[in-house]
Structures are given as C-alpha cells and as structure tokens.
Design goal:
Two copies of one chain form a homodimer. By secondary structure, chain A is mainly α. Chain A contains five helices and two strands, in the order ββααααα. The first copy, chain A, has a single domain, classed as Cytochrome c-like domain (Cytochrome Bc1 Complex, Chain D, domain 2), CATH 1.10.760. Helix content of chain A is 48%, strand content 4%.
C-alpha cells in the first residue's frame, strides 16, 4: 500500500528517511542518539533542524563535532536538508 | 517535603530550573519551543546541551540566532551551564 506522507517545512518525510543513513551513525536509528554528546533529533522542530544544517554547511559552527557536521552537510542540497528535517521532526521523541 | 533531585552531567536539576527564566522566553516554559525556528530542549541529551552552551559562549557559532545565544551564555558559569543542561534533559520530551 502506498501512503502519502506529510511534508514539513517543504520537506518530504519519506525522502528524508531514505537520505538519513549517514545521520543514524551518530544520531541513532530513529533520531535517538545514545551517546549523549550528540543531540537527539526525533521530534525536534523542522525549521530549527534545517537552520542548523544550513549553518553547518556554511561553516557557521566550529569546535566539538562541528567539523564532522560541516563535512556531512557540504554535500546536501537545500531539498536534502528540507527532507531530512521533515523526517526527524516527524519521529516520536521517545527518551 | 524536600526531595533530592538527580544531577545530570554534574548539574543540579532544581538549580537549573531556577536559572531558566531567560531561556523560557524562546525555548518555552518546559523546553517546548513553540516557534519552530528555536530548538526544543526538553529531553535533549544533557552533555549535548552543555557542549552547545559552551560553544555559544566561546563564539563558535554564528549566524541565525547565535548572536542572541552568545549574549545569553556569556554570563553563564560552568556550573550554570551544567545546571541548565541537567534541568532541560530531565524534562519530558512532549511534542
């Protein structure tokens, strides 16, 4: 059965999920980061997620894991960022 | 009745709550930011919250609302950061 998934902040949840494999290594399979130095993404506001990814891509964040995030985000298009943000915002924020 | 609250990442939840008034203006009364350009903080990993506040304080984040966060975090001690991080991590991550 095909289901039309909701879009958030111009993003497509299903497309975001398909693009999220690299993210899951640190942020968890469902956006529930186990290592507490990484943020949980599940249920986070989509607009904030998109702003953060754009900030990493533009090199506006440094220190800590920012270099890793800049490397990952450098290859993301605006649509990729919208899709990933919609996907993580759509997940249940379980602890 | 006095209750001993748990400490997370060296922080004290009750002390963090008492220091959180300024944060609530944008991040919500219980860490549930209503305006989606701001991140929800409720239930976020305490270590990540602390790392983020230290990064803002050190000027390692720019663009967007980073200037506002740098201003707020500039007056926070290491203990303040630990307490605030413990407090927000302790809150239920309701959507």
């Amino acid at each position: 059965m095909l289901v039309s998934l909701p879009a958030l902040a111009g993003g497509n949840v299903a497309d975001g999920q398909s693009k999220s494999a690299s993210c899951a290594a640190c942020h968890g399979a469902k956006g529930q980061a186990v290592n507490s130095i990484y943020p949980k993404l599940a249920g986070q506001n989509a607009d904030y997620l998109a702003l953060s990814l754009h900030a990493y891509k533009k090199g506006e964040r440094s220190g800590g894991q920012a270099g890793v995030m800049q490397a990952f985000s450098s290859s993301l298009s605006d649509q990729d960022i919208s899709d990933l943000s919609a996907y993580y915002a759509s997940l249940a924020p379980l602890k």
